[in-house]
Amino acid sequence: MVGLSIGEKHFIQGGIAQDLRTDGRKRLTYRPISVETGVIAQANGSARVKMGKTEVIASVKAELGRPSSSAPDKGKVSIYIDCSPTAAPQFEGRGGEELSMELSAALRQCLLGGKSGAGAGINHSSLSIVDGKVCWDLYIDGLVINIDGNILDALGAAIKAALSNTGIPKVNVASTAPSDEQPEVDVSDEEFLQFDTTAVPVIVTLTKVGRHYIVDATSEEESEMSWAVSVSVNREGLICGLTKRGGAGLDPSVVLDMTLVVKHVSEELMNKLDSEIAAAQAMEEKS
Amino acid sequence: MEYVSPEGLRLDGRRPMEMRQLRAELGAVSRADGSAVFEMGNTKVIAAVYGPREVQQRSQQLNDKALIRCEYTMANFSTGDRMRKPKGDRRSTEISLVIRQTMEACILTHLMPRSQIDIFVQVLQADGGTRSACINAATLALADAGIPMRDLVTSCSAGYLNSTALLDLNYVEDSAGGPDVTVGILPKLDKVTLLQMDAKLPMDIFENVMQLATEGCKAVANYIREILMENTKQLENRRGI
């Protein structure tokens, strides 16, 4: 994907070893993040996030559905990621499918918790309307517009921003329906409930290049990586999910060291993101 | 249903001959050789151009001209109800073909033999007229990539509902089932490169509707030229000329 000469590779590795990367950042600094909310008019919530040149759009759509029989008091959330061929020509046709699947799976692990929905960043219980009968199905769609490394973190941030932009219509249930029939529901067009996003984690990916690890790697840096670990951390500093990519193995002791680093970095990212989201919301309301 | 009120206003408050608000922006995708965002009202598309570059599949190489390829994709969230269609359905394949043929008519392919130009169009929001919006976005992206063209191609649609000719149909008007004429023109050369219509229309009315769509194309062309001029001025400034 990225064609680099031996000299360029050495330059990138050398820079990381000296804590001064090719774009002037330190090992644990993020590129500037910009957030724009409400970019898709038809969705219940949407956001565009740019991290350096990486650009993604996330949208949240809520549809009425039936809860599954194993969890009658919970709504359903699904995450699908799509890689647009505009981002890279190799995503043409079915070319982007593999990466899309990998990203979707990683995000599900990081945000949705276990099968029961326990420990999830998104509160499934708040999506329930009538136990065992009606619930909200949240469809989270991500679209990768431009790729310059670190897509997973950007998608995580975009989903968080889109969720905080999401208004779920208020629903009135007709109480007279007998218990064995599907109750009639009245979806309000005017009243919306703000989705609670305080528990939604952020994702921090640590990429190992040479002897060190870095955050927010660019495509060039990612081409030099031996492995990358993505950790999702919530506001309390608890780890919500973890995925590893890349071929090489890593020493178990490194994982503990990494979690400490991630905890520190995620706090900064979370604060940065929250202020960006608040600014974007204010901008949207003004216009 | 009434698509034009007695006062002569359409469902979204436009007059019959009024186009939706246009907005365009160049260089939206930094990795691509050329890219653009084009909006017609609520319809919003991104186009990215990669090339001219080496042909990826040798068997497709053309020795006397460039190979043009095009892919049209719709985002899952682009339509009102969430889409669950697989990639590469018939409709997208047809639109890809239409865009490719329209762009082939204006790119000077003979100047770039044995090379390939990829045009990717991604629909972010669909509210009628995606075909036209995609062609307009592709033109801008090609111009941004600096690919030699005979002229800009611009496109616009027009329809005929409640015995009134309407310019630039939105989704509701488009799905009304009336005739929908999509025209693509080369504005300077005054040639038609794309003409599609469904449903039926009497000859004399068709002439009017097509005339209206052509006028729409010209208006789009003026807007696109403005955007390109502005962009060129900015580039000029940056180079300190």
From TrEMBL, chain A:
Organism, as annotated: Cichorium intybus
Superkingdom assignment: Eukaryota
Name of the featured protein: Uncharacterized protein
From TrEMBL, chain B:
Record's protein name: Uncharacterized protein
Organism: Cichorium intybus (Chicory)
